[in-house]
């Protein structure tokens, strides 16, 4: 998949209701790829916000999310007030045929009222384009008429269950509303056949809460051992193998059908002075039996999963195969992916995410008073002997707990981290330029840059609005093997956003290993347009004895060596590397931190004879232990390793912003102080277009 | 119409949604006649509470009313909490076909959500019987099928407008809900054809707000001059005269169809262990063209009203005539009244109420903090030079205004009137026995009765819970001719309710004449079961100079004569009639009331030689002026006339309950003090079954 590059938005914002769900999330990907901005509204009744966090990483776009029920007029109105909506794609709705026969009132109430409130607000806010997620279920049993298979849009409707009745009613509402103002409304009614498969990235897919109601997700759960066997509802239909025939359509094809419909409405808007209300089948035109799909899926997953044929299910009909000609002709859309591809993609999604978006050991909480969904704290390894809590803001380490004991300082919500000039970067990702740039000045490819001065005469830890106060995209959270969790944050930092040149894309990948009690941080970045200086680190303040004492007093700190960058009274490097008189790791003796002394705020050099050749120290360097710390009272030890050539050690003697001096110490691996202004070091902090930046830090506890 | 006698309720309470509306109100009459109790919920969006007030008088039953929108779950739940509902008849809904094509969202939202909330609450409160007001509109154009006129219930549905779609959808909801629990739900879906006509009493009928959407009310408004001419929408249909054919059904027949359906559900409940969901046409089976109905109506009103043929109306179909066989067979119901009767009844309703329930010069306000609808103050003659404000509680005179100036005392809401033992009966209707009964004892037909003593050793102004704190039914308010207003209140006071014998039915009829500045009060009553003592009056306290002085000081009071009933120290009559030394009307000289003296609290006799022969002084007596009063400062005069043989004059020297002594004076015509215990007078205060009680008082201002 080729994503649009930044800034190629067509300026149109699409409100996607139910955008966290199966079809909704896949459609958001296609919308963004096609230049639309998306706002998602979802009540998460049958979906997870995780899908939206993953969409942000997958699409590299911020996606505003509202946790709202469409029936809640007031909440939904906020969405229209806060965003300039151009069109609406309406997926939200209860959709289980079987359940709908048990609790029909809930289906009618939710699906119909939700749509009415949405349309009322569209009317109020002058939004006229609407793509509706209908269903082939509205046709009911099309075999009751002669020559109606494959089913054309003209087939008389006759749904046979409450779910289908709600879709049918909404179609009527749309027709009636259109007829009340035929010059105004532009409605596309899309009658889906059977959506299956998943995004080829394996990042998003179908993740039904509870027992799946559809064939494919059920088979997938059987294949990964979550369910015992597949139930096949009836093999006594009049078909080639006795099982009912459906028109299965890859969800990515289906998603693309929405873009085709939306563009059709856009064009219609431009060309005509009238509105439109029209139905299109979205199907392949090719029917498959349940057994045929079963076969394809077994081929994809490499084993024959157990199944049992049980009785027919209420509301099921013999054959629902689309006549897709109208969509092909008018929308220039047709399916491109077949059942086999869908089964392969489903199997990738299933094996990558055997429990869908529901991961044990992951917890999310809101980190802003307004419960903004992308202002979250995500804990990975939750409930285990080692866990880390991370924030979108600054891709910050909010907390780490070793055997249940917190060993770092951090705030309880975003307000703490957003404390302005007195910010101490607590736990945050630092960029674009960690540590000082002398006088805030540098040159890159002959161009001179001036950054905002924020530290004496220098710029420290990035320019204006640096990474620690940026809201990162994601995270994409995974549990790739037992006891290992990853959380990937992404930041798109465009040219001059933070006073630096070039469009930068940064990935921050946290990997937590419970058994090893280690948290690995990887920074990866590429730049587009112009070269940029880049030097990243993490600014966690540790207090290994925090459970007993808010101060670091008594911590035994060992630093790998005593060679350090010499600086003048303005903390500008003199160009020399000097020896500092401290006990080092090499002595096998630790420095014991007292209440006031010794004070550390020096940049140590791992090996003064070995300067990285380029911006990727992961590729070019080796992982070296640079510091250890231990506290005899808590008996917790820390080892810091990195691929970076230097590391600042800081005993927090100027800590403020809600904390007091010496309530933590920081070990900040990175590149040499002011390297961008020193020809010996400049290459390794210069990222050119086409290059990759890499750096790795590991915090391991013992 | 024969109404059930009191106490013949079958114990079942029916919640009638939209019960203030056209079909709803007529059905309430039939329900009560058939022994059901009714609770009405209505949002009054297209109806008036006046219809409910009239229903109370017409049915002689209290009808709890909730001003609530069905979409308001919380408010509607109150109804279910406060009443033991046995079944629901659901009329509420927007119903104008033409309007529905203009504002379809409102129709879907209101009609469908209202029904869903109602059904959700029925589910929660275990109410399972439901009669739904559907419409023949669900069939759409039945002529599109061969042999479907007259239309049977099996005719495929296909509504052609949003209104019909909402009815169709609700039918689907009911079917789906029934199918989810077939042992539980009992649903009757009644598909109305065209309801016309009105109740033969002329008290209730169709009263559309705004321009009528239906043929008959439109014709009626043309006939009384409210509209210029009738529009006939198309005379080019393929019918005998070119106008569309409809099956018109008298609204009383239609109402009876609901009783038939409800009884069918009741019986089904008793006989079967299963539920039911079934549709019945309610129609006559006889189609009439628009021109035929036009002819019948012109015959009824005696003139050919003007009409114009205009184009066809969107959504209209050729022919909607019912096949009514299923209802006849299963519900034992069929129409009994034809179009001619309906037109006559409509004409009576129209001529009695040319502006329906909307009367100029009538204003209502709530008189209780909870905004209970039958706790109302109704002002008749509002905005004119003479007006009276009346309350349901005690059928009380709350205020009278002469040329804009209030001349009586009264409270601002019911709380004032409900002040318990210290009540001073301000403005109230007094009964069953005005004035004193010695020692609270009397005999009637050989039986001895003891009343609660409330005044020294006597019972004054009725027994426990006497009329002044009873909530009267109604009022039925009319404007029979220019400047004349009537308000009729009714009270059903059953045997022993107020410690008196016999089931008493009392009417209090106020007639206000603006030009004459007079308020006439008529009391009419009958008793059932046992004979009762009866003596009624009104206890208004006048202060003709209230606008200038809260005290009656300076009032020139003239009393017709000086002969008065002598009483002992316990205010028990001695049996003598004595002369009191006061200046009388005969002297043409008034007594001037001072700040403290003279004190009046005497019962004067109109003519000691002329005792009424029976309980009806209107029939047997003559209207005589008994007192006059005038205040030179306000220049307002009062003349009190009555058909009664005596009148208490009271200068309020013991007034309390928020007022002070001598803030008003009362002239209370009635029958002799303790007459029930004096054989000379007892006959005129004895009401036997089969007799009528009558009495009249007129307050006229000059």
Automatic annotation (TrEMBL), chains A, B:
Keywords: Carbohydrate metabolism, Isomerase, NAD
GO MF annotation list: aldose 1-epimerase activity; carbohydrate binding; UDP-glucose 4-epimerase activity
Record field: catalytic activity: UDP-alpha-D-glucose = UDP-alpha-D-galactose
Cofactor: NAD(+)
Record-linked Gene3D superfamilies: 2.70.98.10, NAD(P)-binding Rossmann-like Domain, UDP-galactose 4-epimerase, domain 1
PANTHER family: UDP-GLUCOSE 4-EPIMERASE
Function: Mutarotase converts alpha-aldose to the beta-anomer. It is active on D-glucose, L-arabinose, D-xylose, D-galactose, maltose and lactose.
Protein name: NAD(P)-binding domain-containing protein
Gene giving rise to this polypeptide: KAFR0F02430
